[in-house]
Amino acid sequence: MTAPSPAGRREHQHNHDKLFRGVLAGSALVGDLESVRYLTPDVAIVYGTASVLMPWRSRLPKRRLSRQTIVVVRTEAGWKISAIHNGRVRPVTVPEPDAFPSKMSQLMARIAHRVKTPATIDPTVH
Q1: Share of the chain above pLDDT 90, in %
Q2: Interval 19-62: pLDDT, tens
Q3: Structure pTM?
Q4: Regarding beta strands 43-53 and 78-88, do their DSSP bridges make them parallel or antiparallel, or are they unpaired?
Q5: DSSP H or E stretch at residue 47
Q6: 80: β partners
Q7: What does the alpha-carbon distance between residue 37 and residue 78 come to, in Å, rounded to a whole number?
Q8: β-pairing, 28-40 with 43-53?
Q9: Is 67 helix (H, G, I), strand (E, B) or coil?
Q10: In what order do the strands lie in the sheet containing 78-88?
């Protein structure tokens, strides 16, 4: 299996153009710059959060907030994005060991350990 090659700048521009002329028409990208960390004078990592504010909303929905990690490189033409990761911000809650989700997970783990055979543990065993 081979992974698809990363899309280039032109493809990203084309797709974003379609988005903002289509389903995101009239919206605004609203965000905050959290920090910039310079790895060298010509390479930096930019951290921020952002969300799309749709025209019928007056405030950003919390569940739509995304965090961006962006690698930027200084070129003769100015700073250019070299790589970006965009992911949803979701608060993580950790259930107590005696809470229902924990109990269910513990039960499923016990069941899984009981039904495993040597062949399912080590696929080289026949």
Answers
A1: 56
A2: 999 999 999 989 999 999 999 999 999 999 999 999 999 888 88
A3: 0.62
A4: unpaired
A5: strand 43-53
A6: 73
A7: 17
A8: antiparallel
A9: strand
A10: 28-40, 43-53, 66-75, 78-88
DSSP SS3 for 125: coil
Tokens of 61: 């929905």
What angle (nearest 5°) sits at the alpha carbon of residue 91, between those of residues 89 and 96? 155
Q: Is the dihedral of CA 18, 24, 26, 28 positive or negative?
A: negative
DSSP reduced 3-state for 100: helix
Q: Which two three-digit tokens encode residue 64?
A: 């739509």
109 neighbors 116 (Cβ within 8 angstroms): no
Burial call 67-92: b when 16+ CB within 10 Å, e when fewer = bbebebeeeeeeeeeeeeeeeeeeee
What dihedral do alpha carbons 15, 19, 21, 25 form, nearest 10°?
-160
- Whether residue 106 has pLDDT greater than 60: yes
User: Hey, which residues does 86 pair with through a beta bridge?
Assistant: 68
Q: Which two tokens stand for residue 119?
A: 């062949």
